[in-house]
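Entry for the shared binder. Reason: the reviewer on the internal report wants the predicted structure included alongside the sequence.
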Amino acid sequence: MPEGRHVVIIGAGAVGVISAIEALREGHRVTLIDAGEPGGEQAASYGNAGWLSSHSVIPPAEPGIWKKVPFYLMDPLGPLAIRWSYLPKALPWLIKYLLSGWTEARVEKTAFALRDLLKDAPLLHRKLAEEAGVPELIERNGVMHAFPSRGNFDNDLGWRLRKKVGVEWLELNADEMRQREPDLHPRYSFGVVVEEAGRCRDPGAYVAALANHALASGAKLVRAKATGLKLSGDKLVAVLTETGEIACDAAVVAAGARSKQLTASVGDPLPLETERGYHVMIENPESGPRSSIMASDAKMVVNWTDKGLRAAGTVEIAGLEAAPNWKRAEILRDHLFSMFPKLPKDIPASRIKTWFGHRPSMPDGRPCIGYARVSRDIVYAFGHGHVGLVGSARTGRLVAQLLSGKQPEIPLAPFSPTRFL
């Protein structure tokens, strides 16, 4: 492929801005397109849990999950909820979702693929943060998983597969957990610490800093909504926006949950869905964890950020347009107070913030990273689901390698957009 192409990157979230940095490093000219502010509250990059969990290799769907679907439909506040009104539209995606986790062998295949994508992610992010002048936002000090009992851990398929793909951890008994986390509720009697993992102290500020670094390195930012891709034969000639065309030689679709329309416009109707997520954050709490913790019973991550103590997690299938169900954020708040009984119960409402956003998710838990069928001038980089922030560092490197026609640093067959076409 020719060097120094003009690349338009659609989407200025974590994947988009890191792709811009890496494409500039490869000698390309870069224009970022996004209607919103990089790192702003409208973006999934802003509101995620902040974990850099290089061990998050298990897809959401596991064997036997189909048995739970009736409960998901009946409980709008459960860890995975499906709105009845959206079910007909979501059904094709849900079927693929269930099939992707039908057997342990299928889940294992995804685990090996995601391990390639996520391994060393905290180190990659640390280097990027240093380049962007915000090294303090990335910490590589491990994360803890808390369980009510050893049995909850031993019976978890996910941990058996993590061991198989090379993840290592330190096991803690109840006393060792208390020494590390004295404020954690005593109902948690077993824990594991994944020391290779890390965290981001302010995901929104981090993405904003990366965007500023890309701009300082020569990228341009256009505030607009991309609506399509213009081709001449198999050659890309422009990206279409609501305010006009932007001529270019190559494009990267990294528009998160809103990438589906763009891929369909060039003949790739990919099964992308939004797993709607919520977080709750307490400003200046008087208690909480010393480290970042995931509670196995609440299915949520608790993480200190520079803005406060954040709890994030759970999934809602209801599409891009439905109004938020803020009771889901209240459930996270209640879990947080339950996990840490020393948190004052009279914290003013003004210090409790809630957020809602859209995880871009493929049915099998693996993102799409690869070329469009119609043209190698178009690169897809979206659909990371629960591993968007942690997976963005290596994804950006892969995007730059694809743009330059180089051999990708990891096998991309498991992430091929054509696997669902």
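Summary line for the report: The longest strand covers residues 273-282.
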